[in-house]
Design a protein that fits this description.
mainly alpha; elongated
């Protein structure tokens, strides 16, 4: 399925609006000016994340599957020893 130019423009403006509202909630107009510098299109690419506790739970804050397996085998070896 081919995307039209209108769809691409809509998607771009949607992400810019979302990031502007997030920046406004985090730090107000001063923070927006720091990121945008007069051109809101700068927000079309790049990542801006909320810093609240609910949004920060990422995979890097949890133990990896490999580490969990290693811990489990180490515990089993200690028990059997």
């Amino acid at each position: 399925m081919q995307r039209t130019r209108a769809y691409c423009r809509w998607q771009r403006t949607r992400t810019i609006r979302k990031k502007l509202s997030l920046l406004k909630r985090m730090g107000g107009d001063g923070l927006i000016q720091g990121w945008v510098r007069g051109k809101p299109g700068r927000l079309a690419k790049g990542k801006i994340h909320c810093l609240c506790y609910l949004c920060r739970t990422k995979s890097y804050e949890q133990i990896s599957h490999q580490s969990a397996k290693q811990n489990e085998t180490a515990t089993q070896q200690m028990v059997s020893y």
